[in-house]
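Suppose a classmate hands you a notebook page containing two proteins, each written out with its sequence and a corresponding row of structure tokens. How would you begin to make sense of it? This section walks through that situation. The first entry is reproduced here exactly as it would appear on such a page.
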Amino acid sequence: MNQYKKQNTLFCFAGLNVLEDESLALETAHFLKETTEKLNIPFAFKASFDKANRSSIKSYRGPGLDKGLQILQTVKDKLHIPLLTDLHEPFQADPVAQVVDILQIPAFLCRQTDLVVATSKAAQKYQRLIHVKKAQFMAPWDSKNIIDKITEVMGHSSSIILCERGSCFGYNNLVVDMLAIYEMQQLGVPVTIDATHAVQLPGGQKTSTGGRRYGVPLIAKAAVAAGADGVFLEFHPEPQKAKCDGPSCLPLTSAPQLLKQLRDIYNLTHKEQ
């Protein structure tokens, strides 16, 4: 997993917002694997087994822990790629870490000590990485407290990657402060940009979250130019049919061009740093 630690190459966490079925997961992961291999971009496939913070109780949440991990294991076995998924409760940490290479702590839950500690213990036990989304309500430098919690358990911070995903900007809106990338990097860990969730309009559709798909490439390019070490992006073959966050995800066919542009921007702005 060393390819995700800070070095002179862009890395990419990309995939589906939520698992819908096995065939869609395999289709998306295979396409992104081929794309990133051609571009020499280190890649991990991302997909959630449960969306626990949906706006409406009637919204699709995913296949659940057991079925979701089965699908992810199939993707891993057939395509031989690293996986990333998020967990929401401490009891999920160990079973998730048995399958998934990068354990993601959601933004809304990044201050939950029990979850952070359980994730850290599982990451240490199975030699996994931890991708922490900075909460929309947190200052970037306050991420140090999260790093300290993980370090207290693991004894080091080398397994941590922080993620900038935007900050609350009044009601139903987010804004990205590009200086946050620099500020979090000063804590000594790599930083990614979640350009997909950064363009959300939280609760903007009353019972679901809205989004500004056109803004995803803009945020991603700006963040990479500002020094981000990696990008977090969500795609779907048919975004209008996606069961979660369709307004914020990109068409799968747009991945090759966007990732090439991001790689080129990275190579230009990170020379001789």
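The notebook's second entry, a different protein, reads as follows.
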Amino acid sequence: MITLFVNRLTVLDASLLDPELGLLGESWLVDAELEGSLDHQGMVLDFGDVKRRLKQIIDQQFDHRLLVPGQARNCRIETSGPRCRVELQLPDGGWLEHSSPRDAVTIIDAPAVNGDSLAHAIGDAITPQLPDNVHRLRLRLAPESIEGAWYRYSHGLKHHSGNCQRIAHGHRSRIHLFLDGERDATLEAAWARRWRDIYLGTRADLLETFERNGVPCYRFGYTAGQGRFELALPRSRCDLIDTDTTVENLARHIAATLAAEHPGSRIRVRAFEGVDKGAIAEA
């Protein structure tokens, strides 16, 4: 037997429902190991095939989706035809409701969604598609190692033609902020606290403000190319943006906000969207 490995095969960007914390955006780096015997080419599997087969399944079944723990006691899942409705009751009295096409949700057969349970679910989806000479697949999912400030956010882009239109997908992102040409770690940490585990909603998509169990809530909704999407969650877990929440607009929003808070200073923002990509804005 010999083992083939591929580090950083892909980045999986998604949102998950945490039984304790609610809606969380996350970005996982995916590493893969395939153990097997050599084929007629002297390979376990060609690297091109590894990337194509594994990444295709991850992209189609897990990426840019809401990942729901199917065994969580406080989570209720209802499917009807092409629709899926998920409701989560939080220990602190908070509540969340997500309604969308079924393809925007993946149910993970576990009490919680984490790197291990997600790796197991992805492995179950991939293994039947591997050739007979591959005897074992091992996956490792881990967040990016970040020194300094970072935040997790969820959002949806109703005008996007692809899967970014799904109302609850997300990212774990670092943030670099410069004040008068100097990087400012204190400013970065403050912004990371501001957007830690946040839902970034477009103001035009806000359907109503209401209370549930005494907790103020927002309900967002829109119709996009894939269908109707709605999301309700505590107002305290949201920040409203005047534009679509693309990373370009988020960088501009951060820059404008900081410029107003630091009049006369030059602001430069490097806002990341997940791993190794993002947008720069100045004010």
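A careful reader of the second entry would note: Helices lie at 47-61, 115-126, 185-194, 247-261.
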